[in-house]
Fold this protein.
Amino acid sequence: MHNLVIYFAFFISAYLIGSIPNGYIITKIKLNKDIRKLGKWQNMGATNVFASVSPLAGIITLTLDILKGFIPVYIAKVVGINQYTILLVGILTIIGHIFPVYIGFKGGTGMATTVGILLALMPSEILFIGLLWGVLIILFKKPSLMGLFVIMLLPLLSIYMKRPQSVIIAAFTISIVDIIMSSSSKKHIKRMIKGAEYDELIGKLKKMKSKSTQ
């Protein structure tokens, strides 16, 4: 009974932490607008905040979204909860980000929060994938498409690193979910292939640079 109470507390806390709409809050403070109605992405993700509000706001959003994925899973690991329960804590955190209770259940895609969860579960693999992703962006200038590619490597890396079965299952699950979410919209697929978000973000940075030199 005691364990059930602890698990239930973790599950509720994970969802509520995941629901914290960092991009929405930061945009409200900065512009007093709903980030979900701004930009081409029209969601509360860090990329949209970066492009629609400011690079600094986007970086802060990214950091906070990663942390809200990392913290619940890391605490669950430290407390010593079993691996499958930790996996469920992570899933509920992602669900919270995608369907946040605080702002009408309309959130973001959950990618940054997913990175935080994976960083807690398999830090070595995530650091490697992060470096590989950075190199591929420089080479091909297509962040989302390259992100999808490196996420698909996660299950293979987790098997190679001999991670626990629950972590391998998490890697497979997250890869499949990411593929489904990324291919759910023809418009999004076209944007990924073109590398549209790279061009838009670079354009935003150039505009800021030109303003600062005037």
About this structure: The chain has a mean pLDDT of 88. The chain has twelve helices and no strands.
